[in-house]
Fold Mitochondrial import inner membrane translocase subunit TIM50.
Amino acid sequence: MARPISRSAPAFIRIKKADGSTSKPDDVNAPTPTPSPKSEPPQQPSPSEQPASIPKDLKSPPPFEPEVRSAAPPDVRGAGEPAPEMSQSAPSEPPSPVAEADEIPDKPDLSKLPSLDIDPEANVPFIEQPKEGKEKDEKKKTGGKKRPEYVSSIERQRRFMTRLGMASLLLGGLGAAYYLGNQEGKEKGGNPLENFKNNLGELTDIFSKPAFTKLLPDPLPPPHQRPYTLLVDIEDMLVHSTWDRTNGWRTAKRPGVDYFLAYLSQFYEIVVFSSQPVYTALPVAEKLDPMTLYLPYKLFRDATRYVDGHIVKDLSYLNRDLSKVVMLETNPEHASLQPDNAIIMKPWDGSKGDRGLVEMIPFLESIGIFQPADVRPVLKHYAGKDIPREYAKKEAEAKAAAIAEWERNHPSGSGGGWSLGSVFGGGSSTARPKQPMTYLEIKRQQAQRMYEEEQKYYKEHGAEIMKMIEEDKERQMAEMKAGIKGMFGMGGENAPGAPPAQNTQAQAQAQPAK
């Protein structure tokens, strides 16, 4: 008897019998009779439909037959049988052998599948089990690639134009640098290639150099210009800023900062040189010197340079003779280009009773009094030392040497005192001359007297000076507004045809009436 095959099996497959002969089913498409579950057991599925790895000792449970119980069902249990559990309900259908089979693994072993004993004449290809190495390589090749991003034609055109513009800009910059190099070579001589490199370096350094080639205006004539320039920082030198949630930002002045600026302004042109932006440092500088008496010039972040990723203050852009420039700094990196002009001080942390600025005055004062031709050797001598203490020792030694010299020239018995003849009117005696002051002490006394006179004058006329400053600011603002209105062609009092002097004079006369 031939075994029935599944409906999905092709018609050309031949099934071998036990005796070796082949047979073809008469009607493949004929419906398979449905066996009765009670009369005879169900037929076994074909080998192609049989599930994999089904245990041979698996037994099917008996068919379920519903039992109708009466009000008092008789106890049909045996003596040793346990009572049935009421919580477990009997299944409505007999469990299928496929459901109780072993779980199918993720990677089934194809070699253990039952053979269909297919005729070799059918030329059915043999299924090989894939190797793990090839499978991983295929995953890397197929799964590692990403889907290319969709780019519209407008976006491609925009990117192309952007690249073209950048390339044109680069070529134009190189051409301009080469042209300027040739022009300099014709005028000044030299190698055109070196001139081209220098010009190219200037184009690339435009973002790392100060905004102006001259940070300060030209010096004033000798009677008005101070002989030396003193550069001071703001944060952690003149002031100290703190922030908390209760009060926000608070700025404290360092003890002695007012006396430091007012007294040394007699010897130095004091310039604020801060690495902070102008919008944060300028209000603090104006608070320190509201009348612009001691800080005539102020430099901020835009006057610094970037060298190796650090902010550096390049004094070569200062428009001053570096032999007459002294820079007070708290960060050594800021003075890395001109270390011989710098005095590195300890940053002020806001503590009370600090005397760092006041103790530095005698040393800076001595430079302004003795006026050395070059301050750099003097500063280099004190580099790495406690300058206030070391200079105090030098000044004490010079004072002791001056006293010893005066004692040699004026011995104690040469004059002064009294004698027996002078008591009885027999003679006269000259008094011993008083010990004179040193040159430094004389100049220091004069500077102190000048400081006191200036402070007295500013105290008496401070209100008038502040009023003049405010009027000057208002006049500048009026001139600026008039210039803006004239630029846009707006009429009125500040018409483009009216001279700016007449407009400012009319505004100045109208101010008292207000």
